[in-house]
Amino acid sequence: MSAHVGGERPIRLVIADDHWVVREGLRMYLGRDPAFEVVGEAEDGQQAVRLAAERHPDVVLMDLLMPVMDGIAAIEAIRRDVPGVEVVALTSVLDDEQVVAAVRAGAIGYVLKDAHGLELKDAIRAASDGRVHLSPEAAARLLREVRTPDRPDRLTERETDVLRLISVGLSNKEVARRLNIGEGTVKTHVSSVLNKLGLQSRTQAALHAVRLGLVRPEEVGTA
To answer: What is the total count of domains within the chain?
Structure first.
């Protein structure tokens, strides 16, 4: 069990990757930081789904290319069956189709395996807070691929403010503080934004905000 940091419990993680060396490296690297606690390791997607349901981690780090059940299907299953668990896609693949599929499946983050360790930690913290974190390369590809509705319902001024703030990576609590409204009200606004735009996730909403010119691509998930 990891030590507590500043009275806060560590972020609980499941690492899913079919390569033992990758799992071991991540476990050792993250295990040295008391802010994180690895509570399970999976070598295929099916095992990842089972561990997510059994151990209720805060975040699953998910490789996309795995046996038995691939990472995309596993992300979908986790987000459907254990919606409180966030998933960060961690992969060496920067393929347009895979990036889009991971985000459509419900991944809140997308990080490349060659990313710096600090970026990985930032992505985990962001996911734990329900915030979007995409590598700049993944964001660029998603912008090309993710389609937005032809005629979305018009957002109110307050919904536009909320969309802008969640797109730069603020959590519901931070948005509430910034706009001086209740956290429950923020959740209602986020749901309304997603419904009006016909989107499934905050990540897709962030990309839509870029299309609308509310934020620049390099600002997505940077707060």
So the answer is: 2
